[in-house]
């Protein structure tokens, strides 16, 4: 007498992604926060895909955008032209949001 078990397994492939992209979560740090005239952004994506950094206001309008060409970098931004308020700093890889941080501008 032998016991047996049967399983139905379904796999769904969402999109092609490399193992290194799964292992390294994109990181974004911004400081000082709150900020008034200058902002320092550090990011790491470990991706060879198109990467961009954006600042978006609370109504969803993009007020700053920059294409990034390396997987790890620091940006120094002059934000003195931004009105006081709350913004979101967004890191996109392959045009998909991968991480974001809240920014307060005085």
Q: What would the average pLDDT be, to the nearest integer?
A: 83
Sheet having the most strands: 4 strands, antiparallel
> Regarding quaternary structure, how should these chains be classified?
single chain
Separate helix tally:
1
- Please give the number of β-strands: 7
Q: How would you sum up the global shape?
A: elongated
Structural class: mainly beta
In spatial order, strands of the major sheet run 4-3-6-7
Low-confidence stretches: none
Tell me the Rg in angstroms: 20 Å
SSE order, one letter for each helix or strand: HEEEEEEE
Helix content, binned percent: under 10%
* Share of β-strand residues: over 45%
Terminal Cα span: 76 Å
Task: State the main characteristics.
single chain, 106 residues, mainly beta, four-stranded antiparallel beta sheet, three-stranded antiparallel beta sheet, 1 helix, elongated
Quick summary:
The chain is 5% helix and 49% strand. The chain has one helix at 19-23, and strands spanning 27-31, 38-44, 51-57, 62-68, 72-78, 85-93, 96-105.
Could you characterize the architecture of this molecule?
The chain is mostly beta strands. It has one helix spanning 19-23, and strands at residues 27-31, 38-44, 51-57, 62-68, 72-78, 85-93, 96-105. It is 5% helix and 49% strand. The strands form two sheets. Strands 4-3-6-7 form a four-stranded antiparallel β-sheet, with no helix packed on it. The chain has a three-stranded antiparallel β-sheet with strand order 1-2-5, with no helix packed on it. A hairpin with a 4-residue loop joins strand 3 (51-57) and strand 4. It starts with 18 loop residues before the first helix and ends with a strand. The model has no long low-confidence stretch (mean pLDDT 83).
């Amino acid at each position: 007498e032998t016991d047996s078990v049967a399983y139905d397994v379904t796999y769904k492939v969402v999109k092609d992604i490399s193992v290194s992209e799964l292992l390294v979560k994109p990181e974004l740090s911004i400081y000082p926060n709150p900020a008034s005239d200058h902002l320092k952004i550090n990011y790491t994506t470990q991706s060879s895909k198109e990467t961009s950094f954006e600042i978006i206001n609370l109504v969803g309008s993009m007020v700053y955008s920059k294409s990034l060409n390396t997987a790890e970098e620091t940006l120094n931004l002059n934000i003195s032209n931004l009105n006081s308020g709350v913004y979101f700093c967004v890191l996109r890889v392959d045009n998909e949001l991968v991480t974001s941080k809240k920014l307060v501008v005085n």
